[in-house]
Protein backbone atom coordinates (compact mmCIF):
# COMPACT_ATOMS: atom_id res chain seq x y z
CA UNK A 1 0.00 0.00 0.00
CA UNK A 2 1.21 3.49 -0.71
CA UNK A 3 1.12 6.17 1.96
CA UNK A 4 -1.57 8.09 0.06
CA UNK A 5 -4.07 5.23 0.54
CA UNK A 6 -4.12 5.60 4.34
CA UNK A 7 -6.93 7.67 5.79
CA UNK A 8 -5.00 8.73 8.88
CA UNK A 9 -1.68 8.57 10.65
CA UNK A 10 -3.24 6.00 13.01
CA UNK A 11 -3.90 3.61 10.12
CA UNK A 12 -0.34 4.06 8.89
CA UNK A 13 1.00 3.28 12.36
CA UNK A 14 -1.28 0.25 12.83
CA UNK A 15 -0.20 -1.18 9.47
CA UNK A 16 3.52 -0.81 10.27
CA UNK A 17 3.61 -1.93 13.93
CA UNK A 18 5.13 -5.28 12.91
CA UNK A 19 8.07 -3.33 11.44
CA UNK A 20 8.66 -1.60 14.78
CA UNK A 21 8.38 -4.93 16.62
CA UNK A 22 10.83 -6.60 14.23
CA UNK A 23 13.43 -3.84 14.66
CA UNK A 24 13.01 -3.88 18.46
CA UNK A 25 13.51 -7.66 18.41
CA UNK A 26 16.66 -7.30 16.33
CA UNK A 27 18.09 -4.92 18.93
CA UNK A 28 17.22 -7.31 21.74
CA UNK A 29 18.82 -10.30 19.99
CA UNK A 30 21.99 -8.30 19.30
CA UNK A 31 22.15 -7.15 22.92
CA UNK A 32 20.85 -9.95 25.19
CA UNK A 33 20.68 -7.71 28.26
CA UNK A 34 17.93 -5.75 26.45
CA UNK A 35 15.50 -8.64 27.07
CA UNK A 36 15.04 -7.39 30.62
CA UNK A 37 13.94 -4.08 29.11
CA UNK A 38 11.80 -5.44 26.28
CA UNK A 39 8.83 -3.16 27.02
CA UNK A 40 11.05 -0.07 27.06
CA UNK A 41 12.75 -1.05 23.79
CA UNK A 42 9.37 -1.65 22.15
CA UNK A 43 8.08 1.69 23.46
CA UNK A 44 11.08 3.47 21.94
CA UNK A 45 10.44 1.66 18.64
CA UNK A 46 6.79 2.71 18.64
CA UNK A 47 7.75 6.32 19.38
CA UNK A 48 10.04 6.12 16.35
CA UNK A 49 7.21 4.76 14.21
CA UNK A 50 4.88 7.52 15.40
CA UNK A 51 7.52 10.15 14.64
CA UNK A 52 8.09 8.67 11.18
CA UNK A 53 4.36 8.68 10.41
CA UNK A 54 4.08 12.33 11.43
CA UNK A 55 7.15 13.52 9.50
CA UNK A 56 7.02 11.38 6.35
CA UNK A 57 6.90 13.26 3.06
CA UNK A 58 5.83 10.96 0.22
CA UNK A 59 6.72 13.57 -2.39
CA UNK A 60 10.43 12.91 -1.78
CA UNK A 61 10.11 9.53 -3.49
CA UNK A 62 11.15 7.22 -0.64
CA UNK A 63 9.21 4.22 0.63
CA UNK A 64 7.65 4.74 4.05
CA UNK A 65 9.14 1.48 5.35
CA UNK A 66 12.67 2.67 4.57
CA UNK A 67 12.13 6.03 6.25
CA UNK A 68 10.35 4.49 9.25
CA UNK A 69 13.05 1.86 9.84
CA UNK A 70 15.67 4.60 10.11
CA UNK A 71 13.55 6.65 12.51
CA UNK A 72 12.73 3.58 14.63
CA UNK A 73 16.38 2.56 14.95
CA UNK A 74 17.29 6.15 15.78
CA UNK A 75 14.72 6.33 18.57
CA UNK A 76 15.95 3.07 20.09
CA UNK A 77 19.55 4.31 19.99
CA UNK A 78 18.55 7.65 21.51
CA UNK A 79 16.64 5.86 24.27
CA UNK A 80 19.69 3.68 24.95
CA UNK A 81 21.93 6.74 25.23
CA UNK A 82 19.48 8.54 27.50
CA UNK A 83 19.02 5.48 29.69
CA UNK A 84 22.61 4.27 29.98
CA UNK A 85 24.76 7.25 29.07
CA UNK A 86 27.05 7.89 26.16
CA UNK A 87 30.22 5.99 25.56
CA UNK A 88 33.31 8.17 25.78
CA UNK A 89 36.44 7.92 23.69
CA UNK A 90 38.21 5.91 26.39
CA UNK A 91 35.54 3.19 26.34
CA UNK A 92 34.07 4.06 29.74
CA UNK A 93 30.47 5.07 30.17
CA UNK A 94 29.95 8.68 31.17
CA UNK A 95 26.85 9.73 33.06
CA UNK A 96 25.56 13.16 32.15
CA UNK A 97 24.12 14.85 35.21
The number of distinct helices, counting runs of at least 4 residues, comes to: 3
Counting helices, strands and paired strands, the structural category is mainly alpha
DSSP summary, beta strand count: 2
Tell me roughly what share of residues is in helical segments.
55-70%
Give the neighbour order of strands across the main sheet. 1-2
Main beta sheet strand tally, sense and closure? 2 strands, antiparallel
Poorly predicted runs of 5 or more residues: none
| Strand percent estimate | under 5%
The chain-level mean pLDDT equals 83
Q: What order do the helices and strands follow?
A: HHHEE
CA radius of gyration? 15 Å
Between the first and last Cα atoms, what is the distance in angstroms?
A: 45 Å
Q: Tell me the overall shape.
A: elongated
Walkthrough of the structure:
The chain has 97 residues and is mostly helical. 63% of the residues lie in helices and 4% in strands. The protein contains three helices and two strands. It has helices at residues 9-30, 38-55, 64-84; strands spanning 86-87, 93-94. The chain has a two-stranded antiparallel ribbon. Helix 1 crosses helix 2 (38-55), helix 1 (9-30) packs across helix 3 (64-84) and helix 2 crosses helix 3 (64-84). The longest helix has 22 residues, at 9-30. The radius of gyration is 15 Å and the shape is elongated. The termini are far apart. 18% of the residues are buried. The mean pLDDT is 83.
Amino acid sequence: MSVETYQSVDELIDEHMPLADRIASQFMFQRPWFFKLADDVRAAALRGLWDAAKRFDASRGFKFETYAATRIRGHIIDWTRDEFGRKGTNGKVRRVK
